[in-house]
Amino acid sequence: MKKKVTKAIFPVAGLGTRFLPATKSVPKEIMTLVDRPLIQYAIDEARAAGIEDFIFVTSRGKTALEDYFDLAPDLESALEKSGKTALLDVLRTTNMDSGAIAYIRQHKPLGLGHAVSCASKLIGNEPFAVILPDDVIAAEKPCLQQMVEAYEETGGAMVAAMEVAPDKTSSYGVLDVNDKNGDAVVSINGMVEKPAPGTAPSNLAVIGRYILTPHVMQNFAHITKGAGGEVQLTDAIAAEISQGRDVFGYRFDGQRFDCGSKAGFLQATVAFALARDDLRDDLLSYLSDLNAADKAAQ
Ligand code: UTP
């Protein structure tokens, strides 16, 4: 019987250089879409998928992340005293049970694969999810939940996949797939991280949600630095395929925002604000004024 996926790794040890100078002192994952930090979206998605153990791979300068999930007794009692119960409820959505989160350190940013491998001892012999908090996915059913349901049918390893424009494939891990039918679950022949322009095996790109078998952890012992001089998670998963183990791509339902990039972050901010009843009308009217002024200036 397949084991349930109850553990998730959140690799948050990257340098976040694309958001300097902000990320000099603010972890990228604490940056907010409207009023919730990126990490909150990731945690909520994991909870919806049945995750019970949350493993953060952190680095120096990320203590704001640890504080974010701690209790805030002073703030709670101030809100209680002033009768701000709605805000108190919002605040309490950030509480995590003692012992539910483990923080481990990646001492050097040697790559996403290396960050995941740092959690190996905590994973033990269980299947696990990996969530990259800077990939935010707006979806009716949260993306990881969709994947867990599919994984319960397929077993093996599974990566979230999405079609990207052919000139963008060199920014992603790209899948070599069997079927071109557009099915949600696709079996994979191979995968390559950041293929040189014109060499991608398809335009089906891997984005930041994975369900992996504990065996993937063993592959880190054999793989060397890959694209960009980093230890790549893609290479450890590709090794599963060459060893004859099942790896599937999963075309999820939903819209993904690349919040690791400025343009993606701004688009997500607008999209999430427009989805909010308290902000939508004001923002729409501002955007349409802006659009009109832009047209008039041309
Ligand atoms: P990115 O490729 O977005 O790198 O990492 P980054 O350092 O966060 O940001 P830039 O490119 O310098 O702006 C994808 C994910 O992998 C994690 C990051 O924290 C992010 O969640 N990561 C990356 C690590 O945990 N460790 C690493 O060594 C590299």
Give a short overview.
The protein is an alpha/beta fold and 298 residues long. Helices cover 34% and strands 22% of the residues.
Helix content range: 25-40%
- Walk across the major sheet and give the strand order: 8-11-9-10-12
Low-confidence stretches: none
Order of helices and strands: EEEHEHHHEHHEEHEEEEHHEEHH
Fraction of residues in β-strands = 15-25%
- What's the total count of β strands? 13
- Radius of gyration from CA coordinates: 20 Å
Integer average pLDDT: 93
Could you please describe the fold and organization of this structure?
- The protein is of the alpha/beta class and 298 residues long.
- It is 34% helix and 22% strand.
- The chain is built from 11 helices and 13 strands.
- It has helices at residues 38-48, 63-68, 73-81, 85-92, 112-117, 120-123, 143-154, 215-219, 233-242, 262-274, 280-297; strands at residues 7-11, 32-33, 36-37, 53-58, 101-105, 128-131, 135-138, 157-163, 173-177, 185-193, 204-212, 247-251, 255-258.
- The strands form 3 sheets. A 5-stranded mixed β-barrel has the order 8-11-9-10-12. A two-stranded antiparallel sheet has the order 2-3.
- The chain is globular and about 60 Å long.
- It binds uridine 5'-triphosphate.
- Uridine 5'-triphosphate (UTP) binds at residues 11-18, 28, 57, 106, 109-112, 114-115, 132-134, 260.
